[in-house]
What does this fold into?
Amino acid sequence: MSLLNPKQISVELDNMGGWEFENNRISKSYHFDSYMDGIKFVNILAEKAEELNHHPDLVVGWCEVTVSFTSHDQGGVTSACVKMAKAVEKL
It folds into this structure.
């Protein structure tokens, strides 16, 4: 899997509301009514990440979860990162 260039990433993110590209990663924050709703989201996301074998970096806060994807092996955003971000949008 090869790295996407910034233009390719931009084209993908144009169709995915709220995702941002910065520091060789794509990220989005999700807001929830309660802390436990965020934790439930993280658990569902973790199952999907295992299924697709591409795992996010997560920051869990009060009623907010920030999800980031990058390929640590390749040092940037790949098509697998975008695929996983699109899967997150469907959760």
Q: What stands out?
A: The chain has a mean pLDDT of 94. Helices lie at 6-14, 35-52, 79-89. The radius of gyration is 13 Å.
